[in-house]
Every structure is written in structure tokens, then in C-alpha cells.
Amino acid sequence: MASSKTLTLIFLLLFLPISLSSPVSISVSPQTLTKSNRTITIRWSGVDSPSDLDWLGIYSPPSSSDQDFIGYLFLNASSTWATGSGSISLPLVNLRSDYSFRIFRWTRSEVNPKHHDHDQNPLPGTKHLLAESGAVGFDNPGGPEQIHLAFTNREDEMRVLWITGDGSENWVRYGVEEGRLEAAEKAAVGRYERGDMCDFPANTSVGWRDPGWIQDGVMRGLEKGKKYYYQVGSDKGGWSDIHSFISRDNDANETIAFLFGDMGTAVPYSTFYRTQDESRSTVKWILRDLENFGDKPVFVSHIGDISYARGFSWIWDEFFNQIEPIASRVPYHVCIGNHEYNWPLQPWKPLWAAYGTDGGGECGIPYSLKFKMPGKSFLPTGTGAPDTRNLYYSFDAGVVHFLYLSTETNFLKGSDQYNFIKADLEKVNRDKTPFVVVQGHRPMYTTSNEVRDTPLREKMLEHLEPLLVANNVTLALWGHVHRYERFCPMKNFKCEDVSSNVTYGASPVHLVIGMAGQDWQPIWEPRSDHQDVPIFPQPERSMYRGGEFGYTRLVATREKLTLTYIGNHDGEMHDMLEILSGKAPYTTDDFVAEDGDEVGAKAGGEGSGKFKFSHYLKEAGILLLGAFVGYFFGFITHCRRRDAPRNTWIPVKSEET
Ligand SMILES: *[C@@H]1O[C@H](CO)[C@@H](O)[C@H](O)[C@H]1NC(C)=O
Ligand SMILES: *[C@@H]1O[C@H](CO)[C@@H](O)[C@H](O)[C@H]1NC(C)=O
Ligand SMILES: *[C@@H]1O[C@H](CO)[C@@H](O)[C@H](O)[C@H]1NC(C)=O
Ligand SMILES: *[C@@H]1O[C@H](CO)[C@@H](O)[C@H](O)[C@H]1NC(C)=O
Ligand SMILES: *[C@@H]1O[C@H](CO)[C@@H](O)[C@H](O)[C@H]1NC(C)=O
Ligand SMILES: *[C@@H]1O[C@H](CO)[C@@H](O)[C@H](O)[C@H]1NC(C)=O
Ligand SMILES: [Fe+2]
């Protein structure tokens, strides 16, 4: 054995130089792609004594040095790799520069455990280049691409942002007929530079790529609740496809939103960080729901930890390509997460907050410029780079007032943000928007083993919770923990009337909804050596916990807000929450009839479902009678578990740090 190993080694040492200089050929087709995300095929041959360590590096631009790949795949991804020839196909996103591909050999003795990805897997070495392909590019690399919509401060507007390869004049043109886009608005244009990035890897040649130019167009004078068609670009630089959206209508009697945190990006290669394959499913099911909702106004709320680029610039391009089918159609709203922001010199950094380096040196700049949310919050970065924006803001959508806040910047009493939140919640007109939904990234409540943030949660409870309680906030939604968890209506760790599931003058119902794609969370399960002791016991206040990837869907009418948790393995409901506003006249009979059907149909096994509902409603009715003074808040929660067998769904695995 030993001698045969030695022989192999001698053989390798003798022949490696020869095999390295032997002609390996690599070709790519097509060499020009008509659009972002079109698939290319890379073919190679002539690899002598193939090894499972041989790999393909993906480069953009082609002038990048060997160690500055954007991603890699092992040649053994091709079934014929052992013959020395093979092929790999993958879609390419337009990075406004050409791509090229290089094949490297890398021997076991060269594995450097110090040069690794964030999972501690060694990154492939680049010492022995076997072959390099020609350049592959796009017909129109300058865009326009990565289209995404957002509300502005005005009800009769819709903002659209997109990326172009240069800063030349761009336009959005729009109208109610697809063939007649007669209105046009010129876009404002902006960008950021490598020098604006504040740490590794964002400011280095590994992470930095030219991000292009950010075009910002606002469609104005829109009529309420109408379908508008639009396209962006210019005669010189080309026009996008025509997209459509439903304009905003704050008189709408129904509000629909998809809400989630921590989704991330799926890419077809390995890179320096693990990417979020599950985000594909989240996008897929939301697109299905959008089809089903047809021409109703909908929007998306992604509450922090957005692309998980963390300083690797091209991941943002991949992300905006991935969400474009959604975001070119409905407004895509965000708030800031640790992974967009945290860096060593962030301006507000109390020791108890334990803010780390999770932003990968982006210091909030891509987040602040690639999105433009309503409001006017900002915080200087303190480095001369553009201000951090999109921190806190609010808007009404139909019957719900939505407030977004930042858990990464000062929220303590007396801060600008605190004052904003207080004033905003106090001026909500509950006749117009009976429901108020507050959203932020790090949770105020969670039962996951998220100990690092305990002091921060204490500050949130001390400074923010009283505002939420005093102003009868309906829902408080948080991300960061990659789980779904629903609490009872909470006030300082106290569950308000969990016994009856009907709460009167209820406190906010908190939910953690960070389950949209990032995999990295503690497991709420007994340890293998202590099956009897759960690691993270579920206290009474935690009404439902789910470990499956997915998102939530909010549908609210004046009478009732319904939030459902959709699981990605089957696109079906796993939990549901209903909250009554007490705002509109309704009778017990109406409500039970309407909802009883749904209960009967969907939760067939739960024979007592109907009875329970009517029982609760009667109770609510009685409470209502005694409640003519001021507000009535009915709260009904009905949990539907669909515990699918283990092997049919994909649970999240390990902890976020
Ligand atoms: C390909 O090679 C890599 C590196 O040795 C290995 O981790 C992986 O499991 C292999 N994949 C296949 C499909 O054989
Ligand atoms: C990146 O930022 C860090 C922190 O400011 C700095 O020490 C480093 O020199 C910068 N690197 C480059 C290449 O600019
Ligand atoms: C909303 O409901 C009110 C009262 O029933 C009605 O007058 C109004 O037309 C409705 N608005 C829409 C947009 O459906
Ligand atoms: C990109 O292309 C792949 C197939 O090549 C497809 O599955 C995916 O949906 C596309 N993504 C987008 C955002 O169009
Ligand atoms: C909140 O609800 C309580 C109980 O129904 C009510 O007394 C109070 O006036 C409400 N406060 C606000 C700001 O709506
Ligand atoms: C309240 O709802 C929870 C979860 O939906 C359920 O487990 C519990 O049994 C309900 N309480 C009562 C009294 O029915
Ligand atoms: Fe986070």
C-alpha cells in the first residue's frame, strides 16, 4: 500500500509538469448572450489524468487575476469528467462586463485550510492554470436591467429603479395601454465607488466589481388602482421589456402583501459564502400567488438580510435578477439588516448591541442606493461615503398602516428614529387603517437560542415595546432568526389572554418570519444524547414554531387581517392568524359562515374547528357588546399545522451568527 502511494507520488511529481503543459482546450457557446440569465455551455477536453479536484473558475471581467474568481465548479459536475473531457451548462447574469472561464489543477497537498470559505471548506488553489476560455458577453451589456418598483411618499406615484452600464440619460415611459406609453419621466442617476466601501471584502479586488449606474425614475400622476404598463431605458442604450403594475389605491378595501426576512440569493456556482438555494422556492411560490391574485394591488416586504452579498458585489446583481419577475410587477419594500450594514466603525455602536462585521464592508451603501424607500431617514456613514438611507419610514396600503424600522441604528428614546416611530404611530387614523403592522430586522421576541442579541432585545423591549403597546399595533414582524415563530399578543413577556384565543384590547402579536431562504439556525429539537430534554423549550407565549422555509401572506379587509405562513416544500399553509378589527359591522353568523367553509375544507380532520370558531365569535360578540367605549380589538388565532413527514420538507439547519 505504502509503496504504491509513494510510486503514485513519484509518478505525479515526474509527470505533473508535463500534464500541466499538455494542451487542454476549453470553449464556450454561445459567445454572446441576448439576455441576462441565458444559459451557456462550457466544454473542455484534453485534461490528462483527471482529478476530482480539477476545477472551473468563473471570472468577470476577464482581466481579473486568478484568485479573484466570482465562483467555481468542480469539473466532476460533468458526468464524463473522468475521461478528461466534459461540459457544464449554467445561466449567466449580466454583470456589465464579459465573463471568462479558466480550468485549474489543484493537488491534495496544496489544500490550504486557511484559505477557505465561511464554512471552513478550503477554497480551490490557482497555482496550475490548464486553460482559459475566450470572453463571453452580452448583446447589450449596458442594460437596462434589475428593474424594481417601490412606493414613494405620494399615493399617485410609483418609483422604478434599474441598473445601466453607464450614466447616460434614461427614461421611464408609461401608460394605461400597452401600445401607448405616452407619459415619460427622466431618471435621476447615481452610483457608488470602491472607495465608498469601508472594509474587506467590499473594498478589495476580491469583492469589488463595478456596480453600474443606478437609474431612478418616478411615474407620476397615476390614477388609483389601475393597471399601468411601463418600460425603462433610452433610444441610445436600449429599452427594457414592457412590464405592468397596479397603481396604488389607499381607498382599497383589501390589502395584500408578502412578507419575509433573510431570503438571500441563489447562484449556480460555489463562491466565498454559502448562498441561499431555498430563495428560489420562495420566489417561485410568490410568483404563483401573484398569478392567483391577478390584478389586485400587492406588495412585498423583505425585512432585512436581503441579498447576503456581504461585500461580494456581483451577488447583488444576481439578487436583483432573481427578484425581477416579482419586483418589476409589485413594489418591493425593505428595511435594513445586519448583513447590509454592520462594520467596525459604524457610527452608532453601543457595546451591548454586539454589532459585528456582518456587512462585509458594504456599510449600508449598496442597500442605500440600490433601493429607494419612502420617507427621508438618513444617517451619515462617517467615512465620507454616501449616507445610510431607507432606515425608517411608513406608508398606508389600503386598510393597513405599515411601519419599517432599523434595528441597526439608534432607536433609543430621544433618537430621531424613536421620535419618528412615536409620532408616526400616534398619528395613524384607525378609521382609515384599522390595522398597524410594524417591521424590523432583529426580533424583539424569539425563543431561538439567539443569545448574542439578548441585551439588544432588552433595549428594544424597554424603548420600543411601550410605543407598540400604547398605540395598539396589530402585528410586529421580525427577521434575523431563520424560523417562523408566532407569539400570543405580548406585553413585556406576558401573554395577554392566551387561554381563550380571543383577546380584547390586545397587545401586538409578534412573529418571526426570517425563514425565506438563509439556512443557518439552531434546531429546536432534543439533543441526540438527551432525547428527553429539548434544547430550546417552547414557552407558553410561543404559539407556533416552524422550521420550514417559506414566507407569509397578509390579506386584510376592514374587518379582518389574515396572515398565513406558506411552506416552500408544498406551497401550502402551515399556520394562520386572524385578527379582527372590530371596525366594520359584522355578525357572528356572517363571519362563521364565511370562515367556517375554509376551516371545513382545509382542516378537515379538525372536527371541532367550526364549533370553536362560532364559540369564540360568540365570546367576541359578548365582549363587543360591552365595548362601545373607544376601540375594540378582536383577536382570533387558529393554528393549522400540517406536519408533513420529515423527508418531504427542507428544514433549516444551523445558527445565524
Ligand atoms: C467532486 O469533487 C469534489 C472535490 O473533491 C468533491 O467534494 C465532490 O463530492 C465531487 N462531486 C462529485 C459529484 O463527485
Ligand atoms: C479596506 O478597508 C479597511 C478598513 O478600513 C482598510 O484597512 C483596508 O486597507 C482597505 N483595503 C483596501 C484595499 O482599500
Ligand atoms: C370600500 O368600501 C366602501 C364601503 O362599503 C365603498 O363605498 C367603497 O367603494 C369601497 N372601495 C373600494 C375601492 O372597493
Ligand atoms: C434563470 O434561468 C433559469 C434556467 O436557466 C430559470 O430556472 C430561472 O427561473 C431564471 N431566473 C430568472 C430570474 O429569470
Ligand atoms: C388602544 O386600545 C385600548 C383598549 O381598547 C384603548 O383604550 C386605547 O384608546 C387604544 N389606543 C389607541 C392609541 O388607539
Ligand atoms: C388557542 O390557539 C392555540 C394555537 O392555535 C391552540 O393550541 C389552543 O388550544 C387554543 N386555545 C384554546 C383554549 O382553544
Ligand atoms: Fe440578520
Automatic annotation (TrEMBL):
Domain Purple acid phosphatase C-terminal, first and last residues per copy? 507-575
Protein name listed in UniProt: Purple acid phosphatase
What enzyme class is recorded for this protein?
A: hydrolase
- GO molecular function annotations of the record: acid phosphatase activity; metal ion binding
Show the GO cellular component annotation of the record.
extracellular region
Please name the source species. Iris pallida
Which keywords does UniProt give here? Glycoprotein, Hydrolase, Membrane, Secreted, Signal, Transmembrane, Transmembrane helix
Q: Which Gene3D superfamilies match?
A: 3.60.21.10, Purple acid phosphatase-like, N-terminal
The Purple acid phosphatase N-terminal domain covers 144-245
Fetch the InterPro entries from UniProt.
Calcineurin-like_PHP, Metallo-depent_PP-like, MPP_PAP, PAPs_C, PAPs_N, Purple_acid_Pase-like_N
Question: Its Enzyme Commission number?
Answer: 3.1.3.2
Output the lineage of the source organism: Eukaryota, Viridiplantae, Streptophyta, Embryophyta, Tracheophyta
The protein's location, in the record's own words, is: Secreted
Q: Which family does it belong to?
A: Belongs to the metallophosphoesterase superfamily. Purple acid phosphatase family.
Q: Which residue intervals define the domain Calcineurin-like phosphoesterase in the entry?
A: 258-484
Report the catalytic activity: a phosphate monoester + H2O = an alcohol + phosphate
Q: Which residues cross the membrane?
A: 620-639
